[in-house]
Structures are given as C-alpha cells and as structure tokens.
Amino acid sequence: MKAYYNDITSGNLHLIRSLQKQISELKSRAINNKKIMLDYVQENQVLFLYTHPHTHEYPLTPLSPNLILDRTPTKKQQQKTVFCLPPYRN
Fold it and tell me: Which of 45, 31, 42 is nearest to 74 (CA)?
C-alpha cells in the first residue's frame, strides 16, 4: 500500500516539474514575442512617417511613451501595454 502511494506521489512530482518547465519556457517565449512586437511597431512607425511626411504622429501609439524606447519593459509596463487606435475617420 505504501509503495502504491509513493508511486502516485512520484508521478505527481514529475508532472509538477514538467509543468513548471513548460511555464518557464512559455514566459521566456512571451518576453521574446513582446520584444519582436516592439521592433515591428518601431519599424512601422518609421515606415509610416517615411511614407506620410505631412503627418507628425503615428496613428498607432502606445499609452506609455517610454515603452517604445525601453527594450526590456518592467512588469508594470508589461501589464499596462495597451495599444490604441484613433477613431476611424473617412
């Protein structure tokens, strides 16, 4: 009976370790994806301003102005990362 419960416990511990490893991999992948997204936003801003020289503002702006310049946003900035579009105009 004791061996049966020890097997269950060891199986659960193995499952917990594998799930923790998956979570850490997903977190690191999410950080990399956010960095890539910031690179794309910066590139889009440059291309937009290049193709629309009469405008001085990019229409897709982050609510936090330091987010674009900062390569590794803090936890607070990551939670507040919200992109907003201006109202649609014809």
Answer: 31
